[in-house]
Amino acid sequence: MRVMKFGGTSVGNAERMRGVADLAAAARKQTRVMMVASAVSGITNLLLEAARAAQEGQPVESLHGRFEDVHRGIIRELAPELGEARQRSLEEGLSTLASELRGLLQGVGLLRECSPSVLAHLSGLGERAACLILGALMHARGLEPHAVEPRDVILCAGDPLQATPLQEETRARFTPLREAGGPGLMLMPGFFGGDTRGKTMCLGRGGSDYSAALAAAALDAELLEIWTDVDGIFSADPRLVPEAFPLPEVSFEEAMELAYFGAKVLHPKTIAPARERGIPVRVCNSFRPDHPGTRVTDDAAPPEHPVRGLSFLPGIALVNLGGAGLKGVPGTAARVFESMALANISVVLITQGSSECSISFCVQQADAERAVQALEVAFEMERAAGKVDTIEQQRGLAVLSIVGDGMRHRVGVAGTFFSALADVGCSIAAIAQGSSERSISAVIAETDGPRALAHVHGRCFGTTEVVELLLAGVGSVGGELLKQVHQQAPKLRAHGVDLRVCVIANSKRVATASEGIPLEDWKQRLAASSDGAPLDAFRDWARAKRPGRPVFVDCTSSEDIALAYPSLMEAGLHVVTANKKANAGQWSHYRKLRETASRHQRRFLYETNVGAALPVIDTLKNMLRTGDRVLRVEGILSGSLSFILGLTEEGVPLSQAVGTAMEKRFTEPDPRDDLHGTDVARKVLILARELGRQVELEQVTLDSLLPSDFDATGPLDDFLARLPQVDAAFQRRVETLRAEGKVLRYVGSVTEDGCFVGLVPVPLTHPLAAVKGGENALSFTSERYSPTPLVIRGYGAGAAVTAAGVLADVLRLVDGPLP
Ligand code: ADP
Ligand code: ASP
Ligand code: MG
Fold first, then answer.
1. DSSP 3-state of 389
2. Active site residues per annotation
3. Residue 602: how many CB atoms within 10 A of its CB?
4. 267 CA to middle of ligand 1, Å?
5. Would the CB of 44 count as within 6 Å of ligand 2?
6. What is the number of the ligand 2 atom nearest to the C-alpha of 126?
7. Would you say 743 and 737 are in contact if contact means Cβ atoms under 8 Å apart?
8. Is the CB of 195 under 6 A from ligand 1?
9. Side-chain half-sphere CA neighbours of 561 within 13 A
10. Could you say which of 3.30.360.10, 1.10.10.10, 2.60.120.200, 3.40.190.10 is the CATH number of the domain covering 616-797?
């Protein structure tokens, strides 16, 4: 005997019904078959909506009309197969159901009341209509299914909308159907049974799975098949996590935990009856009958990963009972949960801290108000005596769970889970672990759910990790960064990293695309986009909480943007910056950046602030972290000045050398930032702060490269026009030094005495003398590196290396191994 349950989408239209008939006919050739069918998809919702409308005195005609139209449409399409006589009798049958519905809705409308019994009866009409049609189709194919009336066989008690089946009695009622000689093909509507008087009792939303499991147990079936619209049970809801994959096998326990915590593919009570009788369950796709689907068995192979799957249960509220007077009082928990039982409220999850001063538990949001009231009544005396001071509810929550037999006795699973939640800035309202170590659940904000689910999934299974890049500034560095991302993205994708540029902004325009902006024509996209405030666009993006790791990348030199980093981190963005203004701003802002990053668990990375992509900041951090004491840092920190000075040594006049550097985009947008030494001073300041010194920019002693009597003020063009005035004197200085065997170098240093920036003549034998043509060089003298210092040297300017440094910072956010 095999029980085959067909879900709503499997009987969703004429075409689907034919598919069901094919599947059942094929199975019938091998064994006896009991088919259990749901309502046509959408019909149960429609019926519930009609009942609500009637109760509120609203018109129900159109809803009622839709019920008839949908079914009549299917019958019409099946007509050629049914034949005229069968079609007519089917239409009569449907009319009977439709007038039953009309009568019920009229009654509800008159009384403005819909009792649970009435609602149960009304809800079951969808399954009855679907089976009527399916039965006729099977008959037309000569299959003669025996119609089973669930109210006669599935005996239930309790709440008519969440009925409890009585399994012994049900089994007894199934006896004639079970015994040899019973019907070979049966068809039964799912979702409901009946009470002792034959009144309809619903098994709860999605309950057709449960009907099928009860039938399978009562019929001693050798297999229970749940035919649905996906390839089995997935590692997570495929609608929420596109990377989720179907699981070939899961254990009964895993299936129960997944279903209980929200995997809608199975009604949570489905597994128990099958498991009691050792009946294997197969979840499979009626759209792809050849796919093996998922087998749920007692002997599921251990999974490759400790976690088998994730589930997500939205619409949850956390109820909290707290008070110092609860500590050590026996029976408190019993009273809490007794009051829930009396109010007929089912408790989803429980947590209690070791202080015993509070008990928290989750219920469906719809039950939360009643749960609070029930507690208020139960603890009235304690409240009056001040022993209980809080009874509150927190709404808008969801339970995210990881489930797997392989989690038992495995270390680090919870660590991965919670750190993944922290990655996406998701705060946790409560935690629970099943005593079997098979599940761990975190209660989080429902709005965080999809994003958290996708990220935890990526961390647990090493599937593709999405990094969303939000870029401000498309000048030379920003433009180069986009080029490099475009080039590297395919290779990164092959390593499981989906790096998407989702927002691109300059000072006026903002282009966005959640799937990533096509980088071959980002310029056109940006030009065609609407005007917008970039900072608002970045914050809005972060707040929309899409799945993925959003990182804000600053390739501007804007002070306003640098000031906004804390608010961007608060909104959930990691920050990578090539802009020195943030770290070289006021000390208070410098501290605030770090505090905000730490409070919101955001990364703040700025390797390119000094020496472009040269590993300066990282090296310094590592020296300090490992206990070295840095005594002195000095070097050539401006690629642009190193380039300009190199040219002057070859006899190029200073003004011309500046022009060439500008053309090559080696300078800051305004070259005076370089020539004055301000840019180098900022880098020296950043290095000093990295060493823990609380200094401000004004405290850096600074000697401009330009003579002090030269007027460098005014608009840029005027300044450039005047610049040749200094050429002759500068050239003389260079030549005089050359005669002495020396060269001029623009050097920045942090010593025990302070921070200095300025032109220094160095002998040709000095290591810094060789550094020119856009190079940077830094030497770190420390307790470990002395007397020979640690030296880092290489290109430290130019868009290409800076952009590469920025990209390297972005990729530091990725967990998995990269190429
Ligand atoms: P049916 O009408 O066949 O009973 P349901 O809509 O009740 O179908 O359940 C199938 C749906 O369950 C899938 O389309 C999927 O979106 C959802 N779902 C949630 N979690 C999971 C999961 N872990 N694996 C598969 N499907 C899931
Ligand atoms: N049709 C019912 C529902 O939508 C039962 C089911 O589909 O399992 O809840
Ligand atoms: Mg279902």
1. coil
2. 683
3. 25
4. 10
5. yes
6. 1
7. yes
8. no
9. 26
10. 3.30.360.10
Q: Which atom of ligand 2 is nearest to the CA of 205?
A: 9
**Strands, sheet with 701-702, edge to edge from the N-terminal-most edge strand:** 701-702, 754-763, 742-751, 630-636, 775-782, 790-795
- Return the pLDDT at 816: 60
- As given in the structure block, the two tokens for residue 710 are 């030269």
38 lines ligand 2 (CB under 6 A): yes
Tell me, yes or no, if the two domains 2-229 and 616-797 fold the same way: no
Query: Does the beta carbon of 265 sit less than 6 angstroms from any atom of ligand 1?
Result: yes
Write the DSSP symbol of residue 519: G
Q: Amino acid letter at 737?
A: L
Residue (of 9, 8, 17, 147) closest to 82 by Cα position: 17
Average pLDDT, the chain: 93
| 252-285 pLDDT tens trace | 999 999 999 999 999 999 999 999 999 999 999 9
Q: Provide the token pair at 649.
A: 């040594």
Q: Measured in angstroms, how far is the CA atom of residue 262 from the centroid of ligand 3?
A: 11
Q: Please report the pLDDT score of residue 815 as a whole number.
A: 67
pLDDT confidence band for 156 (50 / 70 / 90): very high
Q: Kindly tell me if the per-residue pLDDT of 94 is higher than 80.
A: yes
Q: Which CATH class name applies to 2-229?
A: alpha beta
Q: Helix or strand or coil: residue 185?
A: strand
Is residue 309 lining ligand 1, measured as CB closer than 6 Å? yes
Q: pLDDT class for 203, splitting at 50, 70, 90?
A: very high
Ligand minimally distant from the alpha carbon of residue 128: 2
Quick one: pLDDT at residue 182?
Answer: 92
CA–centroid distance, 209 to ligand 3, in Å, is 6
Top mutation candidate among 16, 36, 224, 230 for ligand 1, by most atoms within 8 Å of CB: 230
- E-strand spans in 25-92? 33-37
Instruction: Determine which of 26-30, 507-511, 530-534, 615-619 has the lowest per-residue pLDDT on average.
Output: 530-534
Q: Is 321 exposed, middle or buried (0-12, 13-18, 19+ CB in 10 A)?
A: buried
Identify the residue whose C-alpha is closest to ligand 2 atom 8.
Answer: 206
Helix (H, G, I), strand (E, B) or coil at 396: strand
Phi-psi region of 297 (alpha: psi -120 to 50; beta: other; left: phi over 0): beta
Residue 73 three-state SS: helix
Of the candidates 287, 430, 250, the residue with the CA atom closest to the CA atom of residue 351: 430
Neighbours of 381 (CB within 10 A): 9
Closest ligand to the CA of 191: 2
- Tens of pLDDT along 724-779? 999 999 999 999 999 999 999 999 999 999 999 999 999 888 878 888 777 899 99
564 burial level (CB within 10 Å; 0-12, 13-18, 19+): buried
Q: What topology is assigned to 309-461 in CATH?
A: VC0802-like (3.30.2130)
Cis peptide before 242 (omega within 30 of 0): no
More confident residue, 480 or 795: 480
Q: What is the pTM of this model?
A: 0.75
> Structural domain boundaries of the chain?
2-229, 309-461, 465-605, 616-797
In this predicted model, what pLDDT tens digit does every residue of 323-372 receive, in sequence order?
Answer: 888 888 888 889 999 999 999 899 999 988 766 788 999 999 999 999 99
Amino acid 814: pLDDT? 83
Report residue 637 as tokens. 């920190």
530: confidence class by pLDDT, cuts 50, 70, 90: confident
From the CA of 234, give the closest atom in ligand 1.
Answer: 24
pLDDT at 819: 58
**Please, which pLDDT band fits residue 547 given cuts at 50, 70 and 90?**
low
pLDDT of residue 817: 60
CB of 8 shorter than 6 A to ligand 2:
yes
Q: What are phi and psi of 715, to 5 degrees?
A: -60, 155
Cβ(206) to ligand 1 under 6 A? yes
Q: Which CATH architecture has domain 465-605?
A: 3-Layer(aba) Sandwich (3.40)
